[in-house]
Amino acid sequence: MSTRDFRTTRRQFLTGGAAGAALSTVARPLAAQEPPVPLEQYRAEYFNAAEWAFIMAATARLIPADGDGPGALETRVPVFIDREMAGEFGQAATWYMEGPYQPDAAPLFGYQSPLTPAEVYRGGISAFNDWCERHHDAAFADLDADAQDEALSALDSGEVPLEPELRDFFDLLLQNTKEGYFADPKHGGNHEMASWVYIGFPGARASFLEWTDPSKDNVPYPLGPVSIAGERA
Amino acid sequence: MAREEKRKDVVIVGLGWTGAMLGIELADEGLEVLALERGPDRDTVPDFQYPDVADELKYGVRYGFMQKPKNSTVTMRHNTGETALPYRHLGSFLPGDGVGGAGVHWNGHNWRAMAEEFRLRSYVEEEFGADIIPDDMTIQDWGVTYDELEPHFDRFEYMAGISGQAGNINGEIIPGGNPFEAPRSRDYPMPPLAQTLDGRMFRDAADAMGLHPFPRPAANASEAYVNEYGMQLGPCNYCGFCERFGCLNYSKSSPQTCILDALKRRTNFSYRTHCEVLKVEKAADGKTATGVTYWDEKAGEEVFQPADLVILAAYQLHNVHLMLLSELGEPYNPQTGEGVTGKNYAYQMNGGTALFFEDVDFNPFVGAGSNGYCIDDYAINQIDFAAEGFIGGSYISAGQFNGQPIRSMRLPGDVPKWGAGWKEGIKKWYGHSMSIGSHGSNMAYRDCYLDLDPTYKDQHGRPLMRMTFDWKDNDIRMTQFMRRKIEPIAQSMNPTSWASGYKDAGAKYDLRPYQTTHNVGGTIMGDDPKTSVLNRYLQCWDVHNVFAMGAGAFPQNIQYNPTGVVGALAYWAAEAIRKDYLPNPRPLV
Ligand SMILES: Cc1cc2nc3c(=O)[nH]c(=O)nc-3n(C[C@H](O)[C@H](O)[C@H](O)COP(=O)(O)OP(=O)(O)OC[C@H]3O[C@@H](n4cnc5c(N)ncnc54)[C@H](O)[C@@H]3O)c2cc1C
Ligand code: SF4
Q1: Alpha-carbon distance A212 to B70, whole Å?
Q2: Which of A43, B287, B423, B587 is the most buried (most CB within 10 A)?
């Protein structure tokens, strides 16, 4: 009997739009979710131990924890990258990967490496760790934060010599880090939709007609995000 | 030995926008029509349904609905001296794949071209003299006029369900519409979309400068609508997952929402998915086609499909590729300028200025694919080409499509790319910016063309198509002109800061960033078989029972998004086939 009333209130509480109506039956508060394996205990699918240590350390500098807003580790960006590398993207499963290759072609031609993204990570991490050993006497993961930032800046600006096959390594790493930070949590990162809460993106709500009204100009959207699985934050 | 299927009256290659249109028009003529689509079947439910489709990574970033280069791609070089390399993963353009084609995941900016654009060479010669046309610029008239196409523009707009505001009805200028458009016979079927703040700010700034802003013609429904086939649209909810996504709300005009359910009820129509057409087969005398050979993926074998009429509706790139592989029309030779198939490949010259406002909250996720205001004050028919030193024009617009944070995180130049500064910057600037863009023409040139690559092969062992293309001075001068018009508008809006991105002298074509999926030319139409592949009815000059749809027919690119013109041309060709060709199959010209 009371179910109906309860659902009506809840629907109003959500958005009133089609998306809100659909969600009222599936939305679950985050507290009710099963917590995932802690990051320290996560067993990487693609990366080996040294590579995983690098991914953890590098993403933590690309999106650090300090200041406002979540960092890459809190949002489980490394898990996202590991899953991507083990999956279609990392394996270049949908790309045209037939030779002959010209990896040193002008960048305007786009990706021309014979390696898959997962292989670029593998080779890139190894070459970059060697460089860190030579210039800083330790692998990247063992450097302090300032030295790590310096090393990443060198990688970013092309000062770390890499074979042309690996030249997209930093761009891939940075792009995938941001993807893991902002993508729907179903892909393994953006844990608890923390990046969306931080910037004010409502996720998969996908129904905003009333917010085109001039009375809503410059009024920050009041509702927190929902994910595809129906979590709310 | 290829398996042979039962003969059909009509075989259609590709079931996107134009395939669906020709499918229903020819099925309504009582013909046995078969469409062959290389990709999977797709429908609103389950493929575009809420909430699964609201997945930026899967569809916006990893191109879930688009062509997989592994299955089909091109090679690219900037000039005939370079070695072309494959387009290994998507970037610059995103061809569709599967039922609905790119009609599933387009934005829906739906335009007519200007009357002058259909006879561009004549217009330039008459107004400014032939000597302003650079030697290597190979622009042509279309062989069809705006007036002839008007009823077909109208029909496409009423079939697709376009929201907009007319600016010129039968010569009468209507306030609030585009005063520079060619006359239309009646208003749009639906009123314009509601508009977000950024568009309204642009409108007010343009108004204040004496310009003529009007709402963008949108293939996103502004209200409930039923079209001529009985298909229904519901009002767009500004979901913010439009371009690159299928519509979760039955609001975006697409083959699915406007045609396919009606077409699938016609018992004389059928379609097969995962069937990639490899070649159009010609009769021994070479004057007609006998049907097509396709690869049946499920059966793992080649199939010959006999048919009396072959409609190529495979998108511009694939139509040209099929014509080259099937030896339809003489391949174009850039050295001699002779030959036609592959000639005049062109693209779109765009630029834009980003504006950052510390104190304005735009709620950027409130967006529709075709939201926004435009001005046409610097359109092709408004510019003195002789005085400005270029041929071409642009429309200029502002509108918010989505606030998806991976793709749409616009940041001022002083925000670092990563680290603590980046994290601070995204909080500060997300939702505090907008942009004003120019969307412009691209002329045709002697050495911008399509042919078969000598080295790289596709999964069937056929040569990939090779694109030879680069930006030219004329078009760069055009976009720099637009920059000089847009920047004062931006400055008049008093942003905290702004930044421009327009191609500069010497800019080279870059395959990496997304630009547009407005590839045109290669199967160009015209009134002379020596300089065009198709006659004015989109009929192949050499093989009269082959008609090719799509933007391949454009002899150079217009200043607008192509689909309004593609749709009008498809109805124009369908009418010629129904009324003139079927009663007496022959070359129509
Ligand atoms: C992201 C994006 C945004 C866009 N936004 C706009 C816009 O705002 N305004 C605008 O005017 N245009 C826009 N476009 C372009 C618009 O989508 C196309 O102009 C339109 O879809 C072209 O229709 P078509 O019938 O020629 O091709 P499509 O609709 O792409 O259909 C072609 C079909 O043929 C199939 N096919 C290809 N080769 C074969 C083969 N060998 N055998 C069998 N089947 C084959 C394909 O899989 C596809 O399904 C956009 C495109 C994209 C990708
Ligand atoms: S913005 Fe509107 S038309 Fe586009 S996908 Fe969303 S609901 Fe559909």
Answers
A1: 41
A2: B423
